[in-house]
Structures are given as C-alpha cells and as structure tokens.
Amino acid sequence: QQQVKQSPQSLIVQKGGISIINCAYENTAFDYFPWYQQFPGKGPALLIAIRPDVSEKKEGRFTISFNKSAKQFSLHIMDSQPGDSATYFCAASMGYGGSQGNLIFGKGTKLSVKP
Amino acid sequence: DAGITQSPRHKVTETGTPVTLRCHQTENHRYMYWYRQDPGHGLRLIHYSYGVKDTDKGEVSDGYSVSRSKTEDFLLTLESATSSQTSVYFCAISDLQGRTEAFFGQGTRLTVV
Asked: Are A99 and B90 an interchain contact pair (Cβ–Cβ within 8 Å)?
C-alpha cells in the first residue's frame, strides 16, 4: 500500500522556468511533510519541510504548497537552474513514535533543467 | 555533512553468501535507519533502531537483520544474499523521530551475482 503518491516520475524544465512536483497522501494523521533532494551518487538531503497548520512555506526559490482538505502538497522551484537537476522525494510522517513515526517516502521525481 | 560513514561503499557478492553493511555515526543521534533505494520504488525502510539493542522492522525487512550494540554503529546483515537484494543501501540518522531532519549517508551499492 503506497501511502504517499508522487508525480510526475520525471520532469524536464527549461532554465528559468517553474518546476512543480506533486504529492498526495491518504492518512490524515500525517503531520510532517518534508521534501528531500538527491544528487547522483549522494544520499538524500532535506530541502524544505512543512506542517499542516500552514498552507505555504517558502525558502529562497523553493516553496511548499499544502492543501489539507485535498490531502495534497507540492514543491515549486522558481527560476529553475541546471544545478537543481536532481531527484526529489516527498515524504510524510506522524511523529508519534514506534513505526508510525518513521518517514514514508514517495517514489521520487527526476528533474532535469535544460540550459 | 552529518557525521555518517557507510562501509563498504561498493560490494559485489555471490548469491547465498552472508553480507554485513556498517553504518557509523559521530552525531550521537538516537535513531538510525536502513533504507534501500531501487528504481521505481524510491526509498523503502528496511529496519530502524531507537536505541542501543532496540530495533524494529520496516516495510521491507524480510531477508535482513540488524544489530545495534553501540549508539554509533548500526549493522545490516543479509544472511544469505539473493539477486533481489541488489540495491543501493542508505543509512540515515535522526535526533528525534519523524518530525525532524533525517541525515543520510553516502550509500552502499550492493550487487548480488
């Protein structure tokens, strides 16, 4: 059972454009939604995260939009650069401890930004 | 980079042989995790630890065992490697569970032939 569904699988964007990656979840108990960025040959690294009490969080060119009623959240990368080319993972957790506290990851989106 | 060292970084082994992957941290974080990453599947949790000698299963634990005898070390063992266990394995650590940043190691690429 896939609890976090991520789309698209791959995305090609021109330099300067907006990259948008979407995730949907089923479990309304999730209360922490991070995005991780992974470059080839490296481990994932936290990019930005949001909690459901806010609808949007922005850090530089990266913005998370959160829609609690639709159970969806998305990552927007403004002014996309070739250096943003990487695989992006959304994730969710409940943070209550035990197995429920572990992060559940989407399947990833491979972003290519063309110069 | 967070102080996480995975060893070995690459390994080729034969079907049926035992394999142990090591994760060493210098951050004194309570939680440690083993994930596997496969194309089309993303990151899937194998086992995790919430303290010394305290471990639990993740989503894809069959065929794997773990041990944590010290805060800094978390070992992943494939008792009898199979070709389906060919993957990239990542260790991760976190200070708290879930609602905080998880730091990932560089990964171990394991090939079972």
From this structure: no
Interface contact A46-B105, CB threshold 8 A? no
How far apart, in whole angstroms, are the C-alpha atoms of residue B102 and residue A25? Answer: 20
What pLDDT score does B95 carry? Answer: 86
Under 8 Å between Cβ of B42 and B98: no
* A47 token code pair: 């990019």
Report the Cα–Cα distance between both ends of chain B, in Å, rounded.
33
Nearest to B99 by CA among A108, A29, A86, A22: A29
Residue A101: per-residue pLDDT: 75
Q: Which residues contact B62 (CB under 8 A, 6 or more apart)?
A: none
- Separation between Cα atoms, residue A67 and residue A62, nearest integer Å: 17
Give pLDDT < 50 ranges for chain A.
none
Q: What is the mean predicted confidence (pLDDT) over B69-77?
A: 97
Q: What is the pLDDT of residue B1?
A: 59
Which residue in chain B has the smallest CA separation from A89?
B42
